[in-house]
Amino acid sequence: MDPLLHRGIQLFNNGEFFECHEVLEESWTPERGPRRLFLQALIHVAVGSYHCRRGNPAGAVRQLRKALRKLEAYLPAYEGVDTAGLARDALALIQRIEAGAAVSEYPRISAA
Q: Is residue 71 within 8 Å of residue 43, measured between CB atoms?
């Protein structure tokens, strides 16, 4: 696995969403192939989670929906990442936000 992707996943799973976004962006910026949208989807989940934690539900839902649209092309797994599980978790987060429920759990990225 790409070291930047691996590090980004570690940061994400530690709840360090802003830092995850920064690391994944390093990998995303030079990309020009199909991998670019995959990385961008992960970045959207990180940014959506960050917005949720910071009390911006509209921004969170907007970013998470972008992530779901982009993840569709990479289901059920891509580069060792369980994209189906991530999509399921992101959708559950959207539903909690839209229901006005308290959010105590965020998506996780499972990787081989």
A: no
What CA–CA distance (Å, rounded) separates 31 from 91? Answer: 27
Q: Would you place residue 1 in the very low, low, confident or very high pLDDT band (cuts 50, 70, 90)?
A: confident
End-to-end CA distance of the chain: 9
Mean pLDDT over all residues of the chain?
96
Residue 48 identity: G
Closest CA to 64 of 76, 52, 77, 82: 52
Nearest to 64 by CA among 92, 83, 39: 92
Domain coordinates in residue numbering, the chain? 3-98
Q: What count of residues does the chain have?
A: 112
What is the CATH class of 3-98? mainly alpha
Considering only CA atoms, which of 48, 51, 49, 7 is closest in space to residue 25?
A: 7
